[in-house]
Amino acid sequence: xxxxxxxxxxxxxxxxxxxxxxxxxxxxxxxxxxxxxxxxxxxxxxxxxxxxxxxxxxxxxxxxxxxxxxxxxxxxxxxxxxxxxxxxxxxxxxxxxxxxxxxxxxxxxxxxxxxxxxxxxxxxxxxxxxxxxxxxxxxxxxxxxxxxxxxxxxxxxxxxxxxxxxxxxxxxxxxxxxxxxxxxxxxxxxxxxxxxxxxxxxxxxxxxxxxxxxxxxxxxxxxxxxxxxxxxxxxxxxxxxxxxxxxxxxxxxxxxxxxxxxxxxxxxxxxx
Length: 272
Fold this sequence. Notes:
The chain is an alpha/beta fold and about 270 residues long. The protein folds into 2 domains: about 1-80 and about 245-270, Nucleotidyltransferase, domain 5 (2-Layer Sandwich); about 95-240, ATPase, nucleotide binding domain (Nucleotidyltransferase, domain 5, 2-Layer Sandwich). It has helices spanning about 40-55, 80-95, 135-140, 150-155, 170-180, 185-205, 225-235, 250-270, and strands spanning about 5-10, 15-20, 25-35, 60-65, 80, 100-105, 110-115, 120-125, 215. A hairpin with a 5-residue loop joins strand 7 (about 110-115) and strand 8. It is globular, with a radius of gyration of 19 Å.
């Protein structure tokens, strides 16, 4: 019987999939833009994942879905909240994780885990784009840069423009004012990162953050974001190896699949 499990994270911006072997080895990953058809995105990323691994659907023992579109995965065996999946995924890489910060395209989430890796407390910032990756990407586009250039441009600046608006509209006005006054694009992007970090730290404080802290989400692929967070917190932080910071929820969902398989095997053994 197969011991392969798949986690599918249907996010608001990207849909990710991860394939785990029975020993916890990460076999393959896949990611596509989610778009408006969530079920189609789940099916497409699953197909892409299996092609990468040279497998078919019959080779997979268990599929767990997570993310905003977790109910739109018709072939799932189980669904889990993204907070639960992120808890399992971060501990897959860093077993002593107690606080998780997840900054995605549309939401920012902070959670504190208990000794067993379950979510003990959490807070979300999903009401205003100024606290999400979308604000950073929109700022980059306004300055004439693509998302893939954010890291290099922000890292090249030692100074950061002040962006203190608590609302996306006000923050965007500050960006426009900085451009008009001749501030360098790198300083403005650096300032946007610092603004995002400030919101991140406040969110973690609301869950009573404890070390170890693990950072996940697509924004964590930018070294400046990680560096500023580390400086602001005054302590070390964990980041999964590139590019897996975007895949931790999918990996965590696959870990949940492995745990379900183990329970099933134990029950079958007890009944035999």
